[in-house]
Every structure is written in structure tokens, then in C-alpha cells.
Design goal:
The chain is α/β, with parallel strands linked by helices. 39% of the residues lie in helices and 12% in strands. The protein is built from 13 helices and 12 strands. A 7-stranded mixed sheet has the order 1-9-8-5-4-2-3, with helices on both faces. Helix 5 links the parallel strand 4 and strand 5. Helix 2 runs parallel beside helix 8 and helix 3 packs parallel to helix 4. The longest helix has 19 residues. The chain starts with 8 loop residues before the first helix and ends with a helix. The model has no long low-confidence stretch (mean pLDDT 96). Bound molecules: pyridoxal-5'-phosphate. Pyridoxal-5'-phosphate binds next to helix 3 and helix 4.
Length: 372
């Protein structure tokens, strides 16, 4: 996966290098925190080494007991589940919507039990889940909502940004995501009760942040935690990416629209394209196709590969994956998830030059036409 480089990545990286502060919680980290807070109107943000780490911090802040439950879509990446399973929590998998492939919000409440401590929706392909409905259930039932916003940095839902839509949120700045420093992430917090404790968790369970703020002259071990901080060298690269976010997004939108136009008329033959529901602005994280039949999807993949363009199949649903089945996954009947997993493809999606866009569209359209 090619990480797009714009103007300032090397400049900021050199600056960070010359400053000599290469650990976490340095000056570039501070600039990224301010950027995330102000741009996305998030209560507090902390850079982490990955979205996975941000989710692990969120799971610590949820403060559940072993055996407590969390609700998530089965159609997601392993980290959405692992972070909470590490705390001894039990995943409760919910089916997804046909259109956005996000958790089906209408199925959430019936899966709430006395043990439910968290709901963890993801924003698939950069389109936020139905957060108003999910937050309403959570508020009534006293449950914490954690957005896995790995794919939705800079997406909005009814005028509010992903990361600011729930109690807690997690961003990814991995190389496969829209804005990247190679490996990186951020924990977003929108309730003040998390602010101080999160800094302790972030710095190995110490109150070092109070020493940095001049509130204490010696730091102590005060909590659990881990080393969740991102190196300031990577934060320097990230800052450049964040500052160029609009330009990166414009170029992603161009590819998204080009794919949309290429495949539009194949909808008559049963091909399904992604939709962006009203009230939502996508960051154009990804573009997918859903074929009527599994054989068509598989043949499409073969044909595309023969011509050296490689789309990829999406997630293997967690409830039917090797580890998921050891956690009770076999008891689930998630018909939309199972069908989508067999019929969806994600098209190549990175910052392409105009010629590459034309080529990818022409080749992939031709392959789709031949299998439909
Ligand atoms: C990419 C991704 C993650 C993991 O992100 P990392 O930064 O690589 O840890 C988690 N959840 C979802 C939905 C993702 O797409």
C-alpha cells in the first residue's frame, strides 16, 4: 500500500528529528492533539501507536468486569473485538445493514442484556453508522458507546464529525487508511470523566502528565495502563497529513466518483454500489461492489487478477472466524453478514494518478460486465 506524501511530511520529520525529542508526548504530538480537537470538535484526543491501541484504551476506560458483554457488528476487523476480549468481555455479534454494511441499529436493542457494558459500531468505508439511534439506546440503558472510527477520519454525521459522535472513539492512521503516518491512531474522548485517567493509562499507569503540566514534581505508579504513545517523529509525519486532509480527500473523492460512474449502469444487472445516506458526508475511505451471486464475485476476482488489478474480498465475519467460533460464534445466524461476505469486493483504493484511475475503471468494469 502506497502512502501518499504531500508537501510537508519530510520537512516536519526533519524538524522533529533535529529537535531531538523522539519519544511520545512531544511538541508534534501536542500539535496533532490540538488539530484533532479543534477540527473535529472532540473533547480530548491522545495519539496512540494504532487504532487497536486506542480501542484497548477505550476498553480500559469502559471498566467492565470479566463476563460483561459488548455489542459489535460481526462484519469488522479483529481489533474491534480483541481490545474488549482482552479485558475478559464477551462479544455479542449483530448483523449489518444491506446498504452501508454498518451494524443494523434496529437489531441492537434486542441484544442488550443486564451485562452489556459497551456498544462498538464501526463506520464501514467511511460512512458513519446510525449513531443517533445507538446513542439513544445506550443512554436509556446506561451503556458506553465506543465508535471504531478507524475508517472515518473526517467523515460527518448530521454535521458532527466521526470521533465526536459517542462517549469514546478510535481513529486509525495506518498506511491503509486515508490519512497516515505508517502506523498510528488516536483515542477520542467526549466525556470529561475520562480525560485525566486516560493520560495515566497512556503513560504506563503513571501520572507523568501531571509532572509535565507542572502540577507535581515527581511521578508515581497510579493505575494500570501500557505504553500507548506514538513517537513524536511519526506525529510529525501525521501533522503534515492532517494539514493536507482536504486535498487528500478531494483526490479520494475523484476515484470514488469515477468508480461510481463506471459501474452505475450495471445496477440494472443486479450489481450493488455503495450508498451515502442523507445527512452523511463520507471521507471516501473505500469503494465496494456487491454481486448477486458468490460465483460471480469469485470469477470477477479471478478475471481482475489475470489483468493485474487486485480488488480484495472484505472481512471474514468474526463470528465464523477461527477465534470467533471459540467464543460462541457458531450460535449466530447473521444472514446479511454471511451473504455480504460471500458477494462483496473492495476495489483498489489509494491515491491514483488520472491515468491509473482510467485504467482501473476500464479493466474492472469490463471484468464485472463479463460475469454479470
Ligand atoms: C484498520 C482498522 C482497525 C485497526 O487499525 P490499526 O490502526 O491498524 O490498529 C480497526 N478497526 C477497523 C474497522 C479498521 O478498519
Amino acid at each position: 500500500m502506497k502512502v501518499p506524501m504531500f508537501r510537508d511530511e519530510k520537512k516536519y520529520l526533519n524538524e522533529a528529528f533535529d529537535l531531538g525529542y523522539h519519544a511520545g508526548a512531544g511538541p508534534f504530538t501536542g500539535k496533532c492533539h490540538t488539530f484533532l480537537r479543534e477540527r473535529f470538535r472532540i473533547g480530548k484526543a491522545l495519539l496512540t501507536t494504532s487504532c487497536t491501541d486506542a480501542l484497548e484504551m477505550a476498553a480500559l476506560l469502559v471498566d467492565a468486569k470479566p463476563g460483561d458483554e459488548f455489542i459489535l457488528p460481526s462484519y469488522t476487523f479483529s481489533s474491534t473485538a480483541t481490545a474488549f476480549v482482552l479485558r475478559g468481555m464477551k462479544p455479542v455479534f449483530v448483523d449489518i445493514r444491506e446498504d452501508t454494511l454498518n451494524i443494523d441499529e434496529k437489531l441492537v436493542e434486542r441484544n442488550v442484556t443486564k451485562k452489556t457494558r459497551a456498544i462498538v459500531p464501526i463506520h464501514y468505508a467511511g460512512v458513519p453508522a446510525e449513531m443517533d439511534v445507538i446513542n439513544d439506546i445506550a443512554r436509556r440503558r446506561g451503556i458506553t458507546v465506543v465508535e471504531d472510527a478507524a475508517q472515518a477520519v473526517n467523515s460527518t454525521y448530521h454535521g458532527r464529525y466521526a470521533g465526536a459522535l459517542a462517549d469514546l472513539g478510535a481513529f486509525s492512521f495506518h498506511a491503509t487508511k486515508a490519512y497516515s503516518c505508517g502506523e498510528g491512531g488516536a483515542l477520542c474522548m467526549n466525556r470529561e470523566e475520562y480525560f485525566q485517567r486516560s493520560e495515566f493509562l497512556w503513560e504506563k499507569g503513571t501520572d507523568r502528565s501531571l509532572v509535565i503540566k507542572g502540577l507535581k514534581n515527581k511521578y508515581h505508579w497510579v493505575d494500570v495502563g501500557s505504553s500507548f504513545l506514538l513517537s513524536d517523529l511519526l506525529a510529525a509525519i501525521l501533522l503534515a497529513q492532517l494539514e493536507n486532509m482536504d486535498e487528500i480527500q478531494k483526490r479520494r473523492e475523484k476515484l470514488y466518483r469515477a468508480y461510481g460512474e463506471s459501474f452505475m449502469d450495471l445496477e440494472e444487472k443486479g450489481l450493488r454500489l455503495p450508498v451515502i445516506p442523507p445527512g452523511i458526508e463520507s471521507n471516501f475511505h473505500a469503494f465496494f461492489l456487491v454481486f448477486p451471486k458468490e460465483e460471480q464475485r469469485d470469477r470477477f476476482l479471478d478475471l481482475a487478477l489475470e489483468r493485474s488489478v487486485s480488488p480484495y474480498i472484505g472481512y471474514i465475519p468474526l463470528h465464523s472466524s477461527p477465534f470467533g467460533t471459540t467464543l460462541g460464534g457458531r450460535e449466530y445466524n447473521l444472514s446479511v453478514t454471511d451473504r455480504i461476505a460471500k458477494t462483496v469486493v473492495r476495489l483498489p483504493f489509494y491515491l491514483m494518478e488520472d491515468g491509473e484511475i482510467e485504467y482501473a475503471c476500464a479493466v474492472l468494469r469490463d471484468c464485472a460486465e463479463r460475469v454479470l
